[in-house]
From TrEMBL:
This is PorV/PorQ family protein. It comes from the Bacteria. The keyword Signal applies. Keywords: Signal. The keyword Signal applies. Residues 1-20 form the signal peptide.
Amino acid sequence: MAKNIIFIFVFFLLSSEVLAQSAPKYSNEFLSIGVGARGLAMSNSQVAHVSDVTSGYWNPAGLLEVKDQYEFTLMHAEYFAGIAKYDYAAFATPVDSMSHLGISIIRFAIDDIPDTRFLYDANGAINYDKIRFFSAADYAFLLTYARRVNLIEGLKLGANFKIVHRKAGDFANAWGFGLDAGAQLKRKNWQFGLMLRDVTGTFNAWTHNTELVIDVYTQTGNEIPENSVEVTLPKAILGVGRYIPVKSKFGILASLDLITTFDGKRNTVVKSDFASIEPALGLEFDYKRIVFLRMGAGNIQEVKDFDESTYKTFQTNFGLGVKIKNITIDYALTDIGDQSESLYSHVFSLKAGLNKK
């Protein structure tokens, strides 16, 4: 088993370097946003300690900590003053005492986009009744399997098989497939995690319906799109967390994730031609594990201004949570990264556990 884990990690690094030579730097970015108000409030620092149904996204290995027979979660968020809608749903259940199974669905979309190709009639007059509407939507379907192993005491492993579907009205659509792998290990109050996203690269095959746009593109001098394959490069996330009890009723969970990309130099805290590393920090304060206060900082970026000077931006998030028996309600207030009031988003998520009598 140890040799298999080493082989997977080496293969992960080699495939990252090979694919980086021809793949775009950013692909399937909607899968980097995060899910669940708890994770978003803690700035996505979840890999080491996530232990509920949202593990299907953050780290498949954490699915083994689900205690209920069935666990569900729903989330809704809106970005850019409600223009973009972001929805998430997931389900998890144990298969036996050693393994768990989960299913997750993610949708990020902009709906009701005007199609003005037929705005003018044959006489050149504007006819607003001719305006049509379409959606640009990204979907992801994740099938998760997690299992305890006897290699190391407390070691948990998990994997995702994911299907990605992206659609821009009737103009273009893509189907993609990929794999994620994760591991968690707990030592007393310390928790460690590793998440390998898109281990072999996630390949999106794009199909364009050029008949719908060829006339307009030819008149405006735009390049006619062609069918192509887009590759999402591998990414590694190393996480560490520690829970600190405070007296008998209070506790603090501190976590740190190091998000490592292998597609060349990015505007992150640590950057090189081989890899770039972006830290994400989160804190969660609890009272009797019933009421929670959360905060986090991440997405630290170095931005170049118009006068060639540079400055740093970062994303700060806050959140609250309350657990009533087997129902948990979470809220997060997140920002895109420039601390602009117009870009703050309110995120709500609901989690429920069900058990057979």
